[in-house]
Amino acid sequence: MARVRLQDVAEHAGVSMKTVSNVVNDYPHVSPTTRSQVLASIEALGYRPNATARRLATGRTGTLALAVSDVSLPYFAELASSISRLATSRGYRLLLEQTGESVEAERAVLLGGESGLVDGIIFQPSHIALDDLARYTTATPVVLLGEGDAPEGVDTVMIDNTAAAREITEHLLHLGRRRVAFVGHEAHGLSATSRQRLSGFEAALRDAGAQVDPALLLATDAISPEAAEHAVGAALDSGLRFDAAFCRDDLAALGTLSALRRRGVRVPDDVAVTGWDDVTLTRFSNPTLTTVHPDLDHLARSAMDLLEERVGGYRGPGRHVVAPHSISVRESAPSA
Amino acid sequence: MARVRLQDVAEHAGVSMKTVSNVVNDYPHVSPTTRSQVLASIEALGYRPNATARRLATGRTGTLALAVSDVSLPYFAELASSISRLATSRGYRLLLEQTGESVEAERAVLLGGESGLVDGIIFQPSHIALDDLARYTTATPVVLLGEGDAPEGVDTVMIDNTAAAREITEHLLHLGRRRVAFVGHEAHGLSATSRQRLSGFEAALRDAGAQVDPALLLATDAISPEAAEHAVGAALDSGLRFDAAFCRDDLAALGTLSALRRRGVRVPDDVAVTGWDDVTLTRFSNPTLTTVHPDLDHLARSAMDLLEERVGGYRGPGRHVVAPHSISVRESAPSA
DNA sequence: TTGAAAGCGCTAACAG
DNA sequence: CTGTTAGCGCTTTCAA
User: Fold this and answer.
1) Please, which pLDDT band fits residue B1 given cuts at 50, 70 and 90?
2) Cis peptide leading into B125, omega within 30 of 0?
3) What would the CATH number be for the domain defined by A161-294?
4) Which of A53, A117, A284 sits opposite B225 (nearest CB)?
5) What is the DSSP string of A25-76?
6) Which residues form the HTH lacI-type domain (chains A, B) (predicted)?
7) Please, what's the b/e burial string for B159-198 (b: 16 or more CB within 10 A of its CB; e: otherwise)?
8) Which of residues A83 and B18 earns the better pLDDT score?
């Protein structure tokens, strides 16, 4: 499959490489005759420009990276879908990186492995520490997603986790619930995400004069519905009682619903349940799920905007966009 | 951020570019002294090899593309996660492409836009026609996923859809169900996927002497739980009755469960429901979902194997791997 | 074991 | 409006 090069097209058309290049890149100043001639040659030879060579020559890769822990998690899947669409519409390709549960992998994202491969990175860190983040910041523009502190000089986009946590807890309190469990934070090594949600949760309880019972903080050893089901199940079996469950995310909520159902506990009658992320399936669970709705569109768009500015050469201080959120009220914790 | 080049390292270390290159690429024949010297210089200057330049020089990109319609769909999300992990473990990066509902986009995947960007493509087509597929096959190695016919010479990996459809239909028949609806195929322009599942479905019904009632083929105008909920809801409201629903995929099944629940129809007592794909959430729906379980691991691994052989230069005829499947029996259509 | 130099395919000054 | 030419940063014969 001898590849056809710009050179070959030039010869075939009897013009210079520059002219072919001009045609390929839709340069304005090419005579119509020449243009059609060149186009004919391109067609005849089946020429396709080599993206790699172009990259090397221009220095722009036209590629962005999205790094999340695991795209099989519905929230990240929806985020990836959204970012991918946006990237395409703005003329970028999208490289997908999964960091799993490994801090190493998160570091590698920042170090960029081999650099020069992408113009910028949209990165939702899960486990890496703040100072690590700061240390590994490289020349490649980065926008941080999710929550947690960010090193100075780095752009971030996130919803106000603490406020959202407070709101959805208040929603539970308005329902008259007083023994509210928190489900799904990490048993060891609390993530920034969990920390913020917990903090809003506790603040709301305190403000309402409700008790914050440490026994009601049900940690899990994984971010998964299975782990949540297990944790909630074990708690119930040990005799623990509560009338509401604030779940760290929709997946934990799904596991919680499952644990409750298997034990004949009615939702929302006996226990009201809330999730976080408002992924599609929350509208199809049984019961449907009350959950925090982040404005994913706004989030994705902001991230792309900030990143494009950095790619475009912006060198200023870190910007911090707070994306809007709302509470999607459904059956698992209806309106009062 | 003046980039550090191989050249710079060479000068700093007082050796030639070739030597630095040798060190960077772990070439065997470099004297330990030289090596450590070079490594020191690399460290000192903070050198990172430029991937693009390397690509241009070697011709290998070290990148694979995965093209699916939409990664926010759970099955594709789980597929992408799996393929991404595999790709990483084999030393590739993964470019994510979403084709949405557009045949154009699917063509573009094959044409490769600008080529030379990836070594190979794993592609699950949704809408493109067979002859289109054949016409647009290019120099870039491709492995086709999903179902449907493939042009000669192209590698494919899929489960035996027709057989799986037959099996899960038989499961429903063993439960004594006789009026089985089919939910979720396209109203216009049946996809190859739907066609095969329908054909296995109908074959099983016929073999059992059950009736194939055209009124029970509930098409939807999108591949989504909403669309399925709508279609099933409309059918029920119009007085249509059935005792089982074979859903084209898990999302359609979720929508079906929802429609049934809203109308007080009990699952599985009144209507048994089955899905397809066995995505994570099927274990947490209420009721949990009986569904076709494709061996995703086998599927992903096979696709990678075939692709790597092609990338490695294999030019033989198309291979066709049939990945194993099974039926995951859960509450929505329990064992007889 | 290491060095010199010729590309990989394209872009972009700079001339013409 | 079009041609010439020098890189982009790395790999890779071929010599030394």
Assistant:
1) very low
2) no
3) 3.40.50.2300
4) A284
5) TT-S---HHHHHHHHHHHHHHT---BHHHHHHHHS---EEEEEES-TTSHHH
6) 4-58
7) bbbbebbbbbbbbbbebebebbbbbbbbeeeebbbbbbbb
8) A83
Residues in chain A with pLDDT values less than 70: 1-2, 113-115
Other C-beta atoms lying within 10 Å of the C-beta of residue A281: 24
**A63-159+295-324 and A161-294 share one fold:** yes
Residue B36's CB is within 10 A of a number of other CB atoms, namely 12
**pLDDT at position A149:** 76
Q: What is the pLDDT of residue A114?
A: 59
Determine the protein residue whose CA lies at the shortest distance from the C1' of C13.
A18
Contact A114 B50 (CB under 8 A): yes
Find and give the residue nearest to C9, measured CA to C1': A53
Q: What number of other Cβ atoms are within 10 A of residue A45's Cβ?
A: 15
User: Position A122: which residue type?
Assistant: I
User: Contact, B201 vs B167, CB < 8 A?
Assistant: no
φ, ψ (nearest 5 deg) of residue B65: -110, 145
The domain limits of chain A are: 6-58, 63-159+295-324, 161-294
Q: Is the CB of B49 under 7 A from strand D?
A: yes
Per-residue pLDDT band at B17 (split at 50, 70, 90)? confident
Non-local CB neighbours of A323 within 8 Å, separated by 6+ positions: A157, A158, A159, A294, A295, A298, A299, A302
Fold for B63-159+295-324, please state it: Rossmann fold (3.40.50)
Partner-chain residue, chosen from A3, A66, A281, that has the shortest CB–CB distance to B281: A281
Least confident of A39-53, A188-202, B159-173, B185-199: A39-53
The span from the CA of A118 to the CA of A96, in Å, is: 11
Take residue B225 and report the two structure tokens written for it. Answer: 């739980």
- % of residues, chain B, pLDDT over 90: 64
CATH 2.60.40.420 fits A6-58, yes or no: no
Q: Are A120 and A138 within 8 A, CB to CB?
A: no
Closest CA to A21 of A44, A41, A2, A49: A49
The pLDDT value recorded for residue A113 is: 56
Q: Which residues of B touch A258 (CB under 8 A)?
A: 284, 286
Percentages (nearest 5) of helix, strand, coil residues in chain A: 45, 20, 40
- Give the angle A275-A281-A282 at the CA atoms, nearest 5°: 35
What is the pTM (predicted TM-score) of this model? Answer: 0.94
